[in-house]
Amino acid sequence: MNRSSRRKFLSQAGLTGAGIAAASVFGLPSYSQASGRTARVKLGLVAPRAEFNRRLFGAFLEHLGRSIYTGVYDPGNPLSDERGFRKDAIREVADLHVPIIRYPGGNFVSGYNWLDGVGPKKNRPTVLERAWNSLETNQFGTNDFMDWAKAVGTEPLLGFNLGTGNSEMAIAYIEYCNFAKGTKWSDLRRSHGYEQPHKVKYWCLGNEMDGPWQMGRLTAREYGRKARDIAQQARIIDADVNLIACGSSNTIMPTYLNWDREVLEECYDQVDGISLHNYFGNEPQLSGGKSERFLAQNLDMERQIREITAVADLVQGLYRSPKKLWLSFDEWNVWYRARSHEHLDGKGQFAPHLLEEVYNLEDALLTGGFLNTLMRQSDRVRVACLAQIVNVIAPLVTSPTGILRQSIYFPYALVLKYARGRMLDLEVEGETYPIHAAGLRADFARNEEVPFLDVVATYDAKEKRVAVFALNRDLSNERELSLSFDDIAPSKVLACETVTGTDLKAFNTFENPNKVVTTKLDAMKAGAKMTIKLPARSYTVVHLAV
Ligand code: AHR
Q1: Residues 76-98, mean pLDDT to the nearest whole number
Q2: Is the whole-model pTM more than 0.85?
Q3: Ligand 1, atom 5, residue with closest C-alpha
Q4: Phi, psi at residue 243, to the nearest 5°?
Q5: pLDDT > 70: percent of the chain
Q6: Ligand 1, from 66, 102, 103, 107: best to mutate by most atoms within 8 Å of Cβ?
Q7: Would you say residue 417 has pLDDT above 80?
Q8: Distance, CA 476 to ligand 1 centroid (Å)?
Q9: pLDDT of res. 15
């Protein structure tokens, strides 16, 4: 792109200071309003960008309900292998190519004694697990997770217990996992049959330590100091680890943002990232039960990312630190139905049915929106985890005889399959609709304009591929996306797939598993200017050779 057209694109794309204020739609700098059902998108390689981190598309596996037991580990079931791993779950997760999976919790980790879950299975104690009031047999533990992670081709993201756990046992854990040999804990691992260290590179320093529900909850300053101490020691064991501090559990916490600031004031120099969590829903408080507001909730996620980024950068400034923190959005999903007491209390049972949210079409569309947001914010978000992966608020559900793909599986699979390389710079001009604050919880109460179309695009320079991901929030109308490429020209449409349907509330069951699936759209003509017709209520990807 020559210098003057580059400047023109930058200013039209709202990527210059002046453009941002003029074009702001729900805080999205590169969107501007226009009327009509056609949105115009300019795509270019304006900013020098690094490739985004694929860990953005991670997931989460917690000892909770039927996630581990009967989900991924079910010895004796004919569908399981000799290690007790469900082969159908392995196949599904492996086929998705999930880059990283967080384990073992969640709230669970804050009361977990990792030593109970290693060594000969017959010696492992059964304990009462207190986060979910369930029976934990410890028949699946860290080494089993490592084996499973290998089988599905994913990287582990482990968590330390900063709740009931002390720094001694946290450091013992990383020594057990990552140190080669010749020390108490590394040799214990070797005696358990794991000669080679697991070399886990990403670690969470606890979980949701601001929450009154959390075992061993601390104040921000107490937590920040504990996290700093453990991080400092962990780096002696393994200098290459990436350590993630616990940020706020969600945006309605009374300590939201102050928690993050105080924690980082205590431990900024010792950590690499800070975590964000949030769960969304089409419920009275968050959307007024209105699907058009619900489908805009990825923009609430986007605002949360911007707010936490601002806090991290504030603390960087306070310390005059050369280090910029990245963000780990390591719990996100729709979750609002299976959330009342009976869905959270395991009543002392083994593998109880907890948090078994049934996902419908509108949840799938918003999941596409969340993935768009994560990609759009990928210069700061390095890690993110769809919470979770099997049975518990999950895209995959097992029964004793099979496995089901829920609706949210499909946008997740599309993004995992097609998003590669770096983000393209976009200038989007399109119609918007208003959303209203009245009656909503403070952190969702906004009077804003929301674009009907939410679009991002990735560019894989090596393979010469572009992928365009578009959420059509229009509940009644097809909308057109008119693409014009500035410095790369598509030569062929390789695939065009969509998740759509007439009934926003439709969901899959074992008896009827194909109500919400991906379908193919008629291919359009490829070219530097091309138009895609997006069905009403849809999440679509167009994969192009360039
Ligand atoms: O993912 C379910 C639970 O939600 C996690 O255990 C906890 O971290 C969050 O509150």
Answers
A1: 98
A2: yes
A3: 106
A4: -115, 135
A5: 96
A6: 107
A7: yes
A8: 35
A9: 46
The type of residue at 40 is R
Convert the pLDDT of each residue in 485-497 to its tens digit.
988 999 999 999 9
Per-residue pLDDT of 521-544, as tens digits, reads: 987 899 999 999 999 999 999 999
C-beta separation of 516 from 503 below 8 A: no
As given in the structure block, the two tokens for residue 40 are 């115009």
Does residue 429 have its Cβ closer than 6 Å to ligand 1? no
474 lines ligand 1 (CB under 6 A): no
**Residue 184: partners with Cβ closer than 8 Å, 6 or more residues away:** 172, 175
Write down the residue that tokens 């453009």 correspond to: 19
**CA-to-CA distance for 456 and 541, rounded, in angstroms?**
10
Q: Which of 66, 108, 207 has most ligand 1 atoms within 8 Å of CB, for mutation? A: 207
Ligand 1 within 6 A of CB of 207: yes
- The pLDDT tens digits of the residues spanning 100-119 come to 999 999 999 999 999 999 99
C-alpha to C-alpha distance for 64 and 352, rounded to whole angstroms: 8
- Nearest-CA residue for atom 8 of ligand 1: 106
Q: Measure 111 CA to ligand 1 centroid, in angstroms.
A: 13
Choose among 444, 442, 470, 439: nearest CA to 457.
470
Ligand 1 centroid – CA 103 distance (Å): 12
Q: Strand, helix or coil at 260? A: helix
Does 65 contact ligand 1 (Cβ within 6 A)? no
Q: Give me the mean pLDDT over the 453-461 stretch.
A: 96
Q: What value does the mean pLDDT take over residues 135-164?
A: 98
User: Do residues 431 and 36 touch, judged by C-beta distance below 8 A?
Assistant: yes
Q: Tell me the CA distances in angstroms from 188 to 83, 120, 172, one per residue in order.
A: 21, 12, 10
